[in-house]
Recover the amino acids of this structure.
């Protein structure tokens, strides 16, 4: 009985660790998957990642506005960059990744 109990505890700990690791969104991965096509080329007026001049007026509006526009869509940008399977947290992580490139 003791080995079974130990195995169950170990499995539970491994699952908890796995869930915690997945809970943290990877902004770079989301950017590469859902944002790069427009934010690398400037398609439809998207500010290019790393272009400080293009990002400054957007950053001045505040991070919450950037999040809102990214999650809900703004001008030519569709909600969540067109990938509705992304969580709000994943979209926010991608925004943070792009903003960090110009700060």
């Amino acid at each position: 009985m003791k080995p079974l109990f130990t195995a169950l505890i170990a499995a539970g700990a491994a699952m908890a660790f796995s869930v915690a690791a997945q809970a943290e969104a990877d902004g770079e991965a989301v950017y590469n998957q859902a944002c790069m096509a427009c934010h690398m080329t400037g398609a439809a007026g998207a500010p290019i990642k790393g272009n400080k001049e293009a990002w400054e007026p957007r950053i001045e509006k505040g991070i919450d506005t950037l999040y809102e526009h990214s999650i809900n869509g703004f001008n030519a940008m569709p909600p969540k960059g067109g990938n509705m399977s992304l969580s709000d947290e994943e979209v926010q992580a991608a925004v943070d990744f792009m903003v960090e490139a110009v700060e």
Notes: The two ends are 56 Å apart (CA to CA). The mean pLDDT is 86. The chain is about 65% helix and 0% strand. The chain has one domain: 25-100.
